[in-house]
Amino acid sequence: MSVLTYLKNNFLIFDGGMGTELQKKGILPGECSELWNKEHPEVITDIHKGYFSAGANVATANTFGANSLKISNVEEIVTLAINNAKNAITKENQFVALDIGPTGKLLKPLGNLEFEDAIKIFSQTVIAGDKAGADLIIIETMSDPYELKAAVLAAKENSKLPIFATFVLDATGKTLTGADVESMVALLEGLGVDAIGVNCSLGAEQLKLFVPKIINASSVPVIVNPNAGMPVVVDGKTFYKQSPKEFALAMGDIAEMGARVLGGCCGTTPEHIKELTNVIKTKKAKPIEKKNFTVVSSYSRSCCFNAKTVLIGERINPTGKPKLKEALRNQDFDYIIKEAIGQEEHGANILDVNVGLPEIDEELTLVRAVKEIQEISTLPLQLDTSNPIALESALRVYNGKALINSVNGKKESMEAILPLVEKYGGVVVALTLDENGIPDTAIGRFEIAKRIVEKAFEYGIDKKDIIVDPLCLTVSSDKNAPKVTLESIELIKNNLGVKTSLGISNVSFGLPQREVVNSVFFSHALQCGLDAVIMNPYSELMQKIYYAHNTLMGLDENCQEYINFASNNPVVDSKTTNNSTNITLDGAIVKGLKNEAQKCAETLSVDMNPLEIINNIIIPALNQVGEKYEKGQIFLPQLLMSADTATIAFNVIKEKLGENDSSQKGEIVLATVKGDIHDIGKNIVKVILENYGFKVYDLGKDVSPESVVECVKMSGAKLVGLSALMTTTVPAMEETIKLLKKENPATKVMVGGAVLTEEYAKMIKADKYAKDAMESVRYAQEIYK
Amino acid sequence: MLPILIQLSDSRQLTISKKEVLRYLGVKESNDQLDDLIEKAIDSVHSTVSLKASYIRVPILVEGEEVDFGFDKVKSQSLAKNLKECKEAFVFVASLGVLNDKAIEKNFKLDRLNGAIFDCVSTTLIESFCDYINEYFGEKNVLRPRFSPGYGDFSIEHQRSILSVLDAYKNVGITLTDSLMMIPSKSVTAVVGIL
Questions:
Q1: Which option is the CATH number for A664-783: 2.30.30.40, 3.40.50.150, 3.40.50.280, 3.30.780.10?
Q2: In Å, what is the CA distance from A32 to each residue of A39, A71, A157, A215?
Q3: ipTM of this predicted complex?
């Protein structure tokens, strides 16, 4: 019988801790336990035998850390470990699990391990375990959902074995990276994992609190493998270890709650498993309920499509947005990040990300945009592209269960998109159009939606993971179009049982005062039960309608959300806001007054030449600030305040400059060197240099010498600025300088960072040691005289 | 010798001294505008942290310039001097958690000044958390001042063995880069001698 068949009607009992048992057998602290598979195979087999005879069904092979970061002979050790476990089997329904623990390195952007490298590392272990004959794969003790995703993809791509996955929660019920239970379940179910749960970190008594949450969210069997209670001091109170009896008692409660896979982690022994088996004997395994939630997730939170309509921010889509187009062409991701955060702060629940422009590489740009946004924003993303290659790459690196925009009724589209949804998980938006275009009746659109749902079912994609977008055409070209769309929403919702979504803004195309038309249409669509809307979160009118609608429909307890919204957005009396001050632009910059600087810049740029404003007002003001800083009269915060203020003024004026921007003073490449992961100092230098009119190519942190050289060649920069924070990364700085001097001898290099000194800089052959941001400006001005 | 975990669920019970924040910012004289921003950052930092630590208490042997911790031998004049009269020591690692790093990054992307201030507020908070741990150790013991790898000639190479013996990845969520930097960045390892 396979492990999944057995699990259908029974509890599955996992073993307890391996480390605890190895300590009893004399392993020393810090010794590599995986090597004991080779050095002491009989000891490992004995431990497994102990657990099997205590009643466990699954022996977790001794491969927790058997990855290429920790050991050199992965295949050999994994093979031996699986065999050691198999040798302990004495009867039916005893299984061997290939155990995969975390690599011990954090993935980018939190750490510095690349996502694809993590997949490669896990793949090696999976291939060896699969070949050696494991019955299942258990991926466990994961505290970063991103690493967990890498491990699951490695397992899926290299093996057909059942995949069990467990993650670690802390006392607040979240993972170390802040992910809640619902988002973890969404991610794992999306990836098609066979059983989901938690292990380690907490004792059974503490983990018990979170088990109902997992069971309520999950449609697959739930695993609970707690510690035997590690000694913990919580808020000054000490908690001690659990005895086997106490452990088993709590596990009995957990089984009653509906968990189906039970076992132990650190500190648990065959005694614990024996007691657990005794307690479980008297219980009946509860059937596993399919849940019907439509849910997407980010690395830290989930978004469920239920009574309240989900707001999807539309601002990251270049159609009709010249500034975003320019940002995409210049690969200016800071602009995109600000757009993401702005929408999040205006109440968007999900962000649409569309970077399609004919002149850019959509695959690379979409992947970069997804990575950059998910580093800063906590919202789930809607990956919006018609290019399946770009979509697959973005789905791969996306840290969560994505909303996918979109598939349609064309055969070609379904065949390209649905397999991706199956592999990576996600909720897919289905557009009601096919080879014959968009039907002009609601029933026609319903038929296409039905066809997509049926086709998706063939790929194993559940109805709950499909959201139908019945499409909205422009009212100015067809007066009945909005009505058909509204009818379609109701028809599809009521008769197909799927959620619906709609892009609103298209309806008003070609009309004046579009926001009014959009808002009224939005209100009608809400009334029809629309589940999600793609809209502009900055539209006050639509926001007002949204909050008022929720309140009127009984979706807002005590009208609290409406009241909060209204108090955060007070009605402004235009007569009283005109309290202009007598401040000048240079004064505003020196004092760091952002609003005033913006107003002054706007006023000045009406009839003054932009270049004149920059050269005669902004730069002298910055110089004044810079001098004060150099004399020690003001400090870094004030310098930054002025710099940020100047940036605002620049942005106002740059709009006037447009394409004929001749204010550039020269190109500079900035990078924090390889191995160094802190770049706040470098970022400060960047903003000050930009203030002084230099074009800065910022390569970020942990940058290889080769990338620096490549960028210098591409940009033609005469100056490179390198930063390093630690003595351990100065050698990387030296190496970068060496390569630069070899490949581009004319390039000047300035260096800075906490550990650097004038002497040190000379030693590594830098041209200049800049002790602070102002000194780097002065040097840059010298180079580009 | 299992490490023991310490968790503190409410970071608001720790004090964040504005004076310390200004010191990290390199500011000698503050003004109202700056004070205001610092207060706001102090207020918002708490929701970004998850205070965790892991420690062990070990017998030590100090001989000349070498300190033997059992799990590692450290050659360091300054550390040996600090621990000269001690037979035992606490070894601990404490962290604000990885979400704090993300918050610093986010603040910095939105507004550089606020980012820099938020960074310094976070640094002040992790030091304050270390003080809290020190006080906990000091309830029943007389202690020497805490001493971290990187101080004096105590090489940061030893970060590796300390994090390993404290099972820092599993217990606190800390990893080490090849260049020996801890992630999350607001993390501290230290040794505290027991007199």
A1: 3.40.50.280
A2: 11, 9, 28, 36
A3: 0.80
